[in-house]
Every structure is written in structure tokens, then in C-alpha cells.
Amino acid sequence: MSATPVIAVFDVGKTNKKLFLFDEDYRIVFERTARFTETADEDGFPCENIESLRLSLFDSLTEIFRQKEFVVKAINFSAYGASFVMIGRDGLPKCPLYNYLKPYPDGLDSKLYAKYGGKEPFSVQTASPPLGNLNSGLQLYRLKEEKPNLYKDIKYALHLPQYLSFLLTGEYCSDLTSIGCHTALWDFEQNRYHEWVQQEGIIAKLAPIEATNKTYSALSPGSNYAIGTGLHDSSAALIPYLVNFTEPFVLISTGTWCISLNPFNHTPLTADMLKQDCLSYLDYQGKPVMASRLFSGFEHEQQVKRIAEHFDIDALIFKTMPFDRDMMRRLKATIQAETSFAERELSTFANEAEAYHQFVTDLVRAQVNSTSLVFTDAPVKRIFVDGGFSKNSIFMNLLALAFPHIEVFAASMAQASALGAALVLHKKWNTKPIPNDIIELKYYSASQGMLL
User: Are 390 and 241 in contact (CB under 8 A)?
Assistant: First the structure.
């Protein structure tokens, strides 16, 4: 039997590092997961273990090349953002991959903002809320100001997806999906690097920008597979939807953060929107994507725990709790105040189901406000919800009720970020057309319930 042509995608998250093999129909035919113990930087702050990641990359490739049932035609990468690897002239990392959660030095960012027009105008131009090390461009600025000798030794600062590509190709490049993710590097008004990047000399440390479908040859002699440049994981996860749907839609990607993405909204970010936790991304074609964020997944975890403890039940029951329309009618008639659920007294609810329905009602109300921020004058035809909340019947029914004139779908697919990284290289390795069933959809109708 002939070997199955596949693309290998390394999907690197903060916790789990995964390898997937997709066949030409974009079915996962092999996967492997690794987790590493974090190391620490020079200040003792936890950070990514780059050496473990590098060794795992090569070990995983060795394993799949041994498997005769597959023939690797291409390799690509998706990884989390705010993740600069500082490469020296010898091709080796010159310092740790600093954790974006590490506190930023007091006053250093203010110095930069003051020099280039003030915090608010700077943040609007770069579509980057002031987030310290989460603005990865500020990581380079910190090294320039506080560690000039180390800074001089840096040849290029590569975002993590491009570093992984470099390990296999020896090629240095930058990618717009990583640059355009709250890095404070990109001027969304001028569609180029921001003035400060040029004026501070940071531009010299940034590798040339390449197209997201650019491929290189492997360093290994005799290799005949194409290697991509890699993508930022959130932008990669949007690709399957952009490939499959052309009418305007909003994607609500749910997890710890619930991020509403509108790839059809190219309007400039305003200071008011920035204050409401909106930002802009760059998609795989270099177009701005309006986004809003809500910390709903974290809030869900906290409040479910509170409800379970109050009613002395197992929190797992909420995973499969069905939507109860009669209960929602009763709650609507009796609970008048619009407030956060954290401020509600649990003793006012008859049981855990009633409390949970009210909690999700409050959560969806906040979600509607957040998602509505990314709408434009052009009508949105559909809302897709993926991630954890897409499996929550109560959340999905209430969301459909809140948007009665928009089609609301729960969407599921196998590993969206990795799939997006595979799809962007489709023409470089796949002989078949892109299948139209890679996203599984479940429709939720507002007409089946009562209005909120």
C-alpha cells in the first residue's frame, strides 16, 4: 500500500506542544502531545524552555519520518504570540524566551509613550492596549534600554512560529500575523511598522516580512518537503472560516478569553474602543481584523465553583445541563437587575440549575455587548462560536435569542489553529481541492425560545 501524503503541523501552546499530521482531506491521521517543565529567566521568573522545545521538534520529526505509512509533503507551525526568541549571529538564542506575564519595568513603557505622542495615541495607532511584555515589541525596547550589550549581540528577534521554521530551514523571516497581534510594532493607520520601530533602531532586529504561504527548503540534505514560515495561533484559527465562508461573519473563539473576531471590519480602532478592550489583528492576508475580548472563560470557572460549593453538588453537572426555557421565563419575570453574577446572592435561587441559568444569562448579556463592538454598518450574516462555550446548550440558545436576525452556529473542527496552518500551504503540497466539510456546524434558532 502506498504511503499517505501528509502535512505536519507543530501547534505550540503555552501548556501543550502538539504535532499533527493531516492527510489531503484534512483529517488528523497522527498526533503527539508533549508538555515541558518551565525554566526560569535571569530574574527567576518562569519562562518557556526553548531547548526542550527544540529537542522535541527534532525528536518528533525523527519519529514521523520512521513511519513508512506517511510521506511528509510539507511542514508548518502555529504558536502563541508575544513570544520573541532573540537569535545571535551564531543562530543560537542569546537570552530566555521571556514570559509575557512577567511584570514590565516601572516607567519604561511611559518613557516610550511620551516620546511618541502619548499612551493613548500610541495605543490606537498600534492597536495594542498597553500590556507591558504582552506587547512583544516592548520586550526588545527593554533590552535596548536596560541590557545594551545583550541587545547588540542580537541578530534577529523571531516570534516563536518563525523561530521554529528557522530551526528547520536556517532562514530568518517575520510574519504579519505575529507582528499584528498587540505587539506595539505595527502602525495600523499607515499599514507599516510604527515610527518608533524605525527611530529606535528596532527595525534592524526584525527579519524581512514574508507572505504566510511562503515556503523554504529544509536544511537536511535530500529533503523534498516544503516548510512554511509559521503563523500566530489566533490568526491561524480564523483561516478555516475564511476559506469556507465568504458572506460577512463574526467568529467568537471561546476559552479562558472569549474573543470576537470580525474579519470583514477594517475600520480603524478608536480610543473609546480600546478602552472597551477592543484591538485589531492582522489576518494571514495582512488585512486588519477587528476584535473584542471578554474574560468569560475565567469567570465561568470561578462562578461554577461558587455555585457548586453553595449547593453542595459536583460542578461537572454543568457541562451537560440542558437549556430550560420554562426556567428562563420564570427568571426573566423575577430577576430584574442587570448586574454581574458575582454580585448576586445565591440564596435567592431555588437550586443549582436556576442559579446556573441566571449566571449564563448574565454572561451572555456581557458577551452580546462585547461582540456588538466589532459589528460594522455592513450586516453580519452569521455568528460562529467555537471552543468550550460552543458545547454549552444554555449559552448557545441564549446567544441565538440575543441575535434573532443573525444565524448563530456552534462550530467544531479538529484543532483549528493547526488546521489553519495546514490550509494556508494547501497549494504547496495538496493535490485535492479543499473539502467543504472541515467545519461541523450546529444551528441555534431564536424562534424556538422567548426573547431576552
Answer: no
